[in-house]
Amino acid sequence: MSVSTVKFNVQDRPEFFKELRKRVNQHFKENDISKYGNTRMLVKSAVMIVLYTLPLVLMLSGVVSSFAGVTAMWILMGFGISGIGLAIMHDANHGAYSKNKTLNSAMSFLLNFVGGYPANWRIQHNVLHHSFTNIDGHDEDIEKQGIVRFSPNQPKKAIFKFQVLYAPLLYGILTIYWFIGKDFEQLVRYNRMGLLQSQGLTFGRALAEIIFHKLWYISLTIVLPLIVIDLPWWQILTGFLIMHFMSGLILALIFQTAHVIEETNFYEPDENNSVENNWAIHQLHTTANYANKSGFFSWFIGGLNYQIEHHLFPNICHVHFKEVSKIVKKTALEYNLPYHQHTTFLDALKSHFTLLHKLGTGKI
Fold first, then answer.
1. Does residue 153 form part of some domain?
2. Which domain holds residue 315?
3. Total domain count, the chain
């Protein structure tokens, strides 16, 4: 994968984003509110952390000891992992959780509790995905090394005709793969690409941190339950895998339905490593919202159903996206630009899997 920077067309209606930023900044100024998190964000964080930690405590303390009860606890922890990933650490790693950098770092550290490594995540998500959304060879979120075809610009293979069936299984092992091997693979690749330096890391330090955090994570979520919980080892491991399968499936579907759908565009840089739009307009062509009227759903997934607003303003905390979306949509339509959105999450899922089917069968 290339580390070269894609050149966006700065001549492509620069007035759009200039006006949009002006209106969004005016919204926060006129209402005298911060762009960072607020009390609602702190309450949500507490709920998500408890949703992850309380079931673990109940299992380890013996309060919950039956196979059915312990399995229920692992399921709750799966939702907790998803909530932490979507609603807490995501904002923190963007620097949007708080204006206090120490608090941002503390909340981004929570990624270690789902088996991930924050520095790698920031490179893949903040640097590569946000900068080069849906651009082949640059956005790792659509690069699956020939396992799944996510873009019409990628080569066709016979196996892909089944991808609409096996993709959910791959989504389910997302966080399992994350803590077992992905971080080590990314570390080697990002070091070779010269991207670790952007996080203030050397290869040796990053490797030591990954190993250390993986070891205590495994000790906490596998070794300790095997020692303390009075159940057969296979039942405990089954619960652990259920937890991760749930969280992986949730996380993958939330992000995929925002970019890999029928309505969004996919790009390949030309011979000059350029694309046709400026960066902000490119985000409108490659990103979509969904279920914006669903209050609890939006609350749980950290406002990531407002993905357009997040991509245009990644440094704004998601608790503000509902109001900001009104400004973004109005401005986009004024400039005759797309504003992709689905009424429900199920509609977005249908679009995602329809696209997977078309890509897999070679129809596009």
1. yes
2. 14-360
3. 1
